[in-house]
Amino acid sequence: MSQETLSPQTVARRAAAEAAVALVKPGMTLGLGTGDTAAHAIRCIAAKKLHGLRCVATSRRSAELAAALGLPLFELDQIDPCSPPAIDLTIDGADEIDPSLQLIKGGGGALLFEKLVAQASRQMVVIADEAKVVAQLGETRALPVEIVSFGARHTVERIAKQPMVERVHIRLSADGSSPYRTDSGHFIAEATLRPDTVCAALHLALKQLLGVVETGLFCHEASIAMIGRPDGSVRTLYKSTSK
Questions:
Q1: Which of 18, 114, 146, 221 is the catalytic position?
Q2: Is residue 96 flagged as an active site residue?
């Protein structure tokens, strides 16, 4: 398919993915993100046909795509955690990116595995189109919070009582018949944030709640964001060292 027939959003996402994959070198251990934009990166990595790569996928969806393209897949625990960083580079998308490179992730339900891989990485590069860049996290997306399925309504009530949370509900499956389940078998609670939310403080508060497994707030993991534009150009954002 020629670039002229692609939607502006797809052109932007592919451009961001290609810019990030330019950082990939032979012999690297890579974290493969989840989502439509991350899928572009996985295809680009496979097309480079680099020798000696080791890839750790953050979801079944990404693992299936990588396997179909012939990329060598490893479980995270097959990578030695005693020789940090275990992963050289993780390339992943985001639902929202703020000016400090704080992220909301988890729209695809893979936030727990994504964070485990990101925190085992020397560098996390985020790829996205311009629509994902916001002034304040929570502007356009609810915050996914992974919770255990047992007593989920009680956990949701605990989340709802947090001062920075406006409202919260459990994400449903695609057909709306039952709660959505992550690859770990957990539920996702979706929390609408108040405009004055301090993301790092909210993350810590939510992690203290019984029943919460992980939040989709990535406050420190990303160091670079590559933002694609509809004309195929890319602008690069860097993590502020002041926070």
A1: 114
A2: no
